[in-house]
Amino acid sequence: MKQNTLEALTNKKSNFFDVNVDKIQDVFLLLYFCIWNTYTSLTPLNSVLRKTSFILCILSAFLSITRTKTLAINGYIKWVTLFLLYNCMSLLWTSSFEDSYIYINAIIKILIISVCISLRIKTVNDINKIIKIFVFSVFYMCVCLIVMSPASDWGTNQIGSVLGLWKNTVGMESSVGAVLAIYLISISESVKEKIFHIIESVLLTFITFFSGSRKAFVLIMAACIIVFLINSEKNLNYKKIIQRLFIGVTLIMLVIAGVLLINKNKLLYDLVGFRLYEAYQSITNPMYKVTDPSIIEREFFIGQAQQLFMEHPIFGYGANTFLTYMRQIGYSHIAYSHNNFWELLSTLGIVGFSIYYFMQVYLLIRLYPKKYEEKEMKKLVAFLWVLNLFILILGYWFVYSYNQFYYLILIISFKCNRQNGKTILLRF
After folding, report:
1. What is the mean pLDDT of residues 210-238?
2. How far apart are CA 380 and CA 369, in angstroms?
């Protein structure tokens, strides 16, 4: 009897410890993403906040390993490690050790955070918790942006500068957050929770629009439509058909109203309308003479990256050396190539390009939603599959291969996959 009581108490303490370690991890991850998404400007206080939140995440991972006495090295961790090792190897031929180290340092942090998140996710419910943390951190960034931005920044390229963020970064992160917030609305059972996620999605969509980012604006609209189609059921009754027709007509009317509003309002046309029109013409009409300075400069950057790739196609010039090249030629706007494909090809060559894109292509094949029969799992996978697809496509217009924001989408997607390959268990 005493032995049974002792076992019960031991199990109770063990369960108590397990639950609290999960909560500690959730709190520290929330703190980390709120700080790293928002406090990006280079100030002493921000530096302390970022380092502290990073250390706390490592501490929570250590607690998790202490609980299980094991560390699972799954396929995703192996992939990030391989990409890190190749970046390190590029130091042997890089044209700038300092510039390459910036990217290598970023990948090291991504690897550590990936381990922390991987340790936290054990069930589909855990994935939903991580998505909630992720969406709230972007929501927090947008709230801070609204509170801190002067009125003169709205409707200009300065939106986000108060936080040390470029407007395209604000737009893309807000659009991804908005799509995931819509997913959270669809799975929420509590009315209060559903209302909160609606508020998140509306605010994130609002910020996406005012960021002036064309690709972010397209991402929200296209992602929602495709997810809607993917999740369509084979056997629809008349009630569901009417509901979907109503939603479809409403969406079309909203798009038409939005287009009319943009064309009639000079501020909105200058911010979004003109840039969308120029982007559309540059893609569909090769003879059209583009006048948007951002598109003209983007084409210059891509052309320079293509030239670098042709000179060293196999191994590239070394991690982050496109930035080095811009500095060497004395270009006034020192920046990345504005194209993830050509950025990787010019800096890491075909080898680095293949290593990086292996995971995205693998997940797009493995996570095709029609393979999943469970309704909730299919819904989650559909949203993640569409996000991965559009991030891959939109990589032609922005660089994200060293941004931990997008690695989070990848690791969540990887955890949804049922066939993750062999996992190495390190026991302590």
Report:
1. 60
2. 9
